[in-house]
Write the structure tokens for this entry.
Amino acid sequence: MPTDNGSSGEGPHRELAARRLRTLVDICRALSEEVELHALMALIARRTSEALGVERSSVWLHDRKAHEVWTIVAEGELREIRMPDSEGIAGWVVRTGETAVVNDVSGDPRWNPAVDKRTGFVTRNMLSVPMDNPQGDRAGVFQCINKTAGEFDNDDVVFLQAIASQAAIYVQNARLLEARKRMFDSFVDTLADTIESRDPLTAGHSRGVMRYAVGTAQKLGLSPEEVDVIRYAALLHDYGKIGVPDQILRKPTTLTPAEYEVIKKHVHYTQQILARIHFEERLGEVPTIASHHHERLDGSGYPSGLRDGEISVGGKIIAVADVFDAVTSRRHYRGPMTVPEGVEILDDGTGTQFDPNVVAALKRFLVAEGRLEAGSFD
């Protein structure tokens, strides 16, 4: 008579089921914590390989426009693998939505040996399931290759289907987020272009400031999230100039004191306009940072006369990037300065107008770009 000590095989089966349940829990936790798609798929593939006892797992995504399947993750391979969705077992699964249990690929007409020839890997058996989300959209195919103990069975199929359905939901969400980000980026680019189109001579200034600001922020070791906020704030820092009359904005000679006062209002306009845009929470500081780019450490800047500790780090970075791009670019009333001359302008204002650490970080960025000699500013 069987007992609960595992002599009937029930013990090992329970242990296997428990291990796979823990894997599912770990993957669900990762789905809520990991935001980068490739990193998440790599983690899921690794844990799935461990749980199913296979040599490697691959996640194929379906590119409907190109009629291809491609590996966002293929364990053991450094390069992405692509093939037409009309070929191979992955192509068959993505087309039909059926699961393929192939315990001897050499005898299966759907098997495409070209991938093995290209990678040098030897595939013996394979389990492939479609990655379908609850709405029925097919993101791709999840494959497990070369089970080391026995053949793929129904328990393996049920487990991998559960994994694949969760992965499909995350892929769909990631694609939606990417589409939303592309839409928002195009919106911000359009806003920047509307102001720059008013004066062809200064066109490109916002993108120049963005490039210097992002490079400086990275040299300062800011997080990717902080850099992203600075990127948007830099692109939009001058948007308030839309409220400045053309005869002042495009004046070919030096501004009068009265005209300069009008120009200074663009910062206030920028803050007002950007405050009306519903930025997602992580970008909530964009209006504030954009409005700080003319503040000075000694309190002599505008519009609020803020001092060192009151100015945002992003504002300090954009202030340096703004001046450097402006003085090294052609303007109506003067030609461009050289990079060393632009750096000298920053040096002259360091400690009073500009943050020393920010100026030093911009110099490191310029050195990395090959536009400034290392040691020339020691």
In short: The radius of gyration is 29 Å.
